[in-house]
Amino acid sequence: MNTYIIQDTKLIFMSLEKANKLRVVILSGSGKMIVTPLIEQGVNVVGLSEVYDEFGNMGRLKQGLEKIFWSLIKRCSNPYLSWYARKQEISYFEKNKSSTTDYIKWLKNLNPDLLILHLGPVIPADIFKIPRLGTINIHPSLLPKYRGSNPYFWLYYNFDMNAGITLHFIDDSVDTGNIIGQGSYQIECGTPASEVGSNLVSNYAVPLLLNAIQELENTGELDSIPQQSASPTPYARRVTNKEYFELLDFECWSIEHLWHVLHSNEQWRSVFLPKIKDSEKYDWTLDYFKKMKVNAPYGSIYKDAQGFYIAHCEGGIYLKKQYSAKRFIKNIINHFK
User: pTM above 0.85?
Assistant: First the structure.
């Protein structure tokens, strides 16, 4: 059994040549994160798709301003997947809820050997069974732990510091297919989940994928191991803003625990920022926490000489307000609507 386990290390892999290679299609909910490194390593990607084409669905004025922003301010070319696909001359498809039939037709026309899914939706059998060699999902947890669409929140909620990623085949249930490989490492308190996800993709998922693709090209088969049917953690469901706030424990958790959980995703923005007047005019990030005496109600937003903070029984978690060139451009766009 050659199923790979990576822990605090990297697989050593060689660049792949495109000649006579597998025809790979990627369905991504993370833009170029998984796409670019695979293409740069020689994977023969013949199709790219995502649930929503953010750039393509902008108006012409906003598209023009976005190009100016990314090229002049960020100095980044092709930031959007649809934009990147056109530049690379790779077939692209926006997979939204109303286009399943068209998506199936597009996918079949590409005659893929393999479909790779990263942070995408749950897909039905009439899609994941199209590729000759199956569909591989990249799930951001050590399955069978944290099955579901919100694994980072529950990982952080449980103060579980062992972040991981799993490559597995897709089957008829959610995140239950045979495991191809896994990788994990210990994270530090307060590490943003976006940073954890980027590290897991770059240092673990990409090497695992390259080795899996190479094995498929060499042998036509890929070793995998069945998952245990029961998960040791509850289903990692998404929560409403109301549920999110109610799940945060401002009295029994340590302030470090709360600060850590807030870094699990961006939901704190929609829960706490509306409580700050004119908050939409700025970009906000989570800053430091400070242990101190707090007179404000726990969970409320309070302001002192250092700025706005979320009140906790042990102190406050400060929010950092900063100017954003992109938000400035967005406000200009909204002015012309």
Answer: yes
* Residue 175: closest CA among 254, 117, 130, 214: 117
Q: From CA 294, how far away is CA 292, in angstroms rounded?
A: 6
Taking the C-alpha atoms of residue 332 and residue 43, their distance in angstroms, rounded to an integer, is 41
Residue 227 lies in a domain: no
Tokens 């050997």 map to which residue? 113
Residue 119 CA to residue 201 CA, distance in Å, equals: 11
Average pLDDT across each block of 10 residues of the chain; the chain has 337 residues. List them in order. Answer: 48 45 94 94 95 68 66 65 91 82 94 96 94 97 97 98 98 96 98 97 97 94 95 97 98 98 98 94 94 95 96 98 67 53
CA distance 180 to 205: 11
Query: Is residue 85 located within the same domain as residue 140?
Result: yes
Query: Amino acid identity of 336?
Result: F
Residues 6 or more apart whose Cβ sits within 8 Å of residue 242: none
Co-location of 90 and 207 in the same domain: yes
Q: Are residues 210 and 256 in the same domain?
A: no
H or E element: which one contains 312?
strand 307-312
Domain that holds residue 11: 4-219
Task: Please give the single-letter amino acid code of residue 281.
Answer: K
